[in-house]
Amino acid sequence: MKPRKIPMRTCVVTREKCEKKELIRIVRTPEQTVEIDLTGKKNGKGAYIKLTKETIELEKKKKALNKALEIEIPNSIYEELEKLINT
User: Fold this and answer.
1) Which contacts qualify for 77-86: CB closer than 8 Å, 24 or more apart?
2) Is the residue at 16 inside a domain?
3) Could you tell me which of 7, 12, 36, 82 has the fewest CB atoms within 10 Å of its CB?
4) Residue 9's pLDDT is what?
5) pLDDT for position 10
6) pLDDT in tens, 7-65
7) Radius of gyration of the chain (CA)
8) Is residue 2 part of a domain?
9) For the chain, what is the HEC assignment?
10) pTM of the prediction?
11) What pLDDT does 86 receive?
């Protein structure tokens, strides 16, 4: 049997290619709100980010998610990401 293909995605902050399960998806919904998509299937424009403290700190400086999703990312999203790291 042929081995299964592993889905790869690029982190918008570090520009690293990683397995999809190592990244977390942030979505701009059609209603113009920003949400964390733990399922990876929500409707809307998505961007992937590595779930590490260093990446989130770098994101706050670079604002790569703002550019990728074309919308201002609220601080509550960063707080939720930090909580996900600590759990």
Assistant:
1) 77/26, 77/34, 77/35, 77/36, 80/36, 81/24, 81/36, 81/49, 81/51, 81/56, 82/53, 82/56, 84/24, 84/36, 84/51, 85/51, 85/52, 85/53, 85/56
2) yes
3) 7
4) 96
5) 96
6) 999 999 999 999 999 999 999 999 999 999 999 899 999 999 999 999 999 999 999 99
7) 13
8) no
9) CCCCCCCEEEECCCCCEEEHHHEEEEEECCCCCEEEECCCCCCCEEEEEECCHHHHHHHHHHCHHHHHHCCCCCHHHHHHHHHHHHC
10) 0.89
11) 85
What does DSSP say about strands 34-37 and 17-19: parallel, antiparallel, or unpaired? unpaired
Phi/psi-derived region of residue 63, left when phi > 0, alpha when psi is between -120 and 50, beta in every other case: left
Residue 33 domain-assigned?
yes
> How many structural domains compose the chain?
1
pLDDT of residue 61: 93
